[in-house]
Amino acid sequence: MLVPKLKYDVEYESDSRFVSRFLLLHKAPVLESLCLKINKFHYSHLDIGIWVRNAVDRRVHTREIEYPTGENPISLPRSLYTAKH
Asked: At the top level of its lineage, which domain of life is listed (predicted)?
């Protein structure tokens, strides 16, 4: 199954669980884009890392992550910066 674009607006813990489940269950071989907008502080840095690794493994072409300023910096997988499409 091809899923060309994924765009998530993560505001609540249930949104985070949905994103995790979706990415685990739907194994599109290639993603055109992954856009994550984190609106609240209810997210896990671990979840974001897993989502990004999942997208990189699928050779995602466009990555966009937005999260609230004032939060502690998040660690992103090194593969995000070295990924080739």
From this structure: Eukaryota
